[in-house]
Amino acid sequence: MDVVNSIGRRKTSVARIYLKPGKGEITVNDKSLETYFPTEILRVVVKQPLTKVEGAADYDININVGGGGFKGQAEAVRLAIARALCEVNPEFRSPLKSEGFLTRDPRMVERKKYGRRKARRRFQFSKR
Q: Is the pLDDT of residue 108 over 90?
């Protein structure tokens, strides 16, 4: 098997991953997973597709991620890993889909509108 490329997005974050056979090492922007994602919760989010599917620990994953914050980046990486695992083995699709790892979360920040303080917040109304 060759290298499998995949992309994942969440909010304004974009994650490009390269999955290849190996020992299970994960690098994010040329750093280890533990140093890039500081909290345990974010590391669990990134590894969710790998723990759901048995036999997925034999892959080295190289991740390039940018934009947004840590939470959006972790969820973008999760989507990219799930998509790559489906390319590697089509049998992985149903367990990953049932957990919702293959669904792109479409929620984005609403833009600020002209003449308002925020996207929907209006200025305080004064009768007099």
A: yes
